[in-house]
């Protein structure tokens, strides 16, 4: 599995390169934000690890740029521990956030979790409800034959529901699946993204028949 590490700390990058290579990762590195985008475009990494405080382009700018063309998982590894920085990174499209200093075992576990998330799912690769068709393999959504654009977070929310059709998906499950951390609290984010999904996929967003809210518990996709 190919991993891009973007960080302007050469000692950390060298240590991570040695450690991760020993665990079977093919490591590509970049020392600033602009180089990170170039490296991602040329090497097509399976997972991207980046710092927020990089020269030329900061981490948030890099995430926004990457999310314009790739859905590869992004894990932020940063010395910034404030909740605002975490929220900004996750809202920009990052999948996980690790605060420096960190334990290597924890980082490896998070990388394995991201790798599992990108692995092909078994069973059916398409899910349909109403006039909507969701292709889980190609990450494409169409409605009445027309392509529907979803943000990375909207896609992750819909994908998780599609992988558990008919089942109750709790808010905590969605928070962990979308942002990869139990430390993220639901401050209205799930309601916001669900509202956006309904506007794009339901015939009557105010009276949904497929993307349902289970009061006090979570959400359910009814096919």
Description of the structure:
There is one protein chain. The protein is α/β, with parallel strands linked by helices and 223 residues long. The chain has 2 domains: 2-118, Rossmann fold, CATH 3.40.50; 126-221, Winged helix-like DNA-binding domain superfamily/Winged helix DNA-binding domain (Arc Repressor Mutant, subunit A, Orthogonal Bundle). It has helices at residues 10-22, 33-43, 59-66, 83-92, 104-118, 152-162, 171-179, 189-201, and strands spanning 2-6, 26-30, 47-50, 74-78, 96-99, 126-129, 132-135, 140-143, 146-147, 168-170, 211-214, 218-221. Strands 2-1-3-4-5 form a 5-stranded parallel beta sheet, sandwiched between helices. A 4-stranded antiparallel beta sheet has the order 6-7-8-9, with no helix packed on it. Strand 3 (47-50), helix 3 and strand 4 form a beta-alpha-beta unit. Helix 2 packs parallel to helix 3 and helix 6 crosses helix 8. The longest helix has 15 residues, at 104-118. It starts with a strand and ends with a strand. The model has no long low-confidence stretch (mean pLDDT 86).
Write the layout of secondary structure elements.
Blueprint: E1 2-6, H1 10-22, E2 26-30, H2 33-43, E3 47-50, H3 59-66, E4 74-78, H4 83-92, E5 96-99, H5 104-118, E6 126-129, E7 132-135, E8 140-143, E9 146-147, H6 152-162, E10 168-170, H7 171-179, H8 189-201, E11 211-214, E12 218-221
Parallel strand pairs: 1-2, 1-3, 3-4, 4-5
Antiparallel strand pairs: 6-7, 7-8, 8-9, 10-12, 11-12
Helix pairs in contact: 2-3, 6-8
């Amino acid at each position: 599995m190919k991993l891009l590490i973007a960080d302007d700390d050469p000692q950390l990058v060298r240590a991570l390169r040695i450690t991760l290579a020993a665990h079977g990762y093919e490591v590509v590195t970049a020392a600033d934000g602009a180089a990170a985008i170039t490296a991602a475009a040329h090497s097509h990494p399976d997972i991207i690890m980046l710092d927020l405080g990089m020269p030329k382009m900061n981490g948030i700018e890099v995430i926004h740029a990457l999310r314009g063309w790739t859905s590869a998982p992004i894990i932020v590894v940063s010395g910034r521990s404030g909740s605002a920085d975490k929220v900004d990174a996750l809202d920009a499209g990052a999948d996980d956030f690790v605060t420096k200093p960190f334990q290597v075992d924890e980082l490896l576990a998070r990388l394995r979790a991201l790798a599992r998330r990108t692995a092909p799912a078994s069973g059916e690769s398409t899910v349909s409800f109403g006039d909507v068709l969701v292709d889980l393999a190609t990450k494409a959504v169409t409605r009445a034959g027309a392509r529907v654009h979803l943000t990375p977070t909207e896609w992750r929310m819909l994908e998780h529901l599609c992988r558990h059709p008919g089942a109750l998906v709790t808010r905590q499950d969605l928070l962990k699946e979308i942002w990869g951390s139990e430390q993220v609290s639901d401050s209205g984010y799930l309601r916001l993204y669900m509202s956006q999904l309904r506007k794009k996929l339901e015939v009557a967003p105010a009276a949904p028949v497929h993307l349902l809210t289970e009061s006090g518990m979570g959400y359910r996709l009814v096919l």
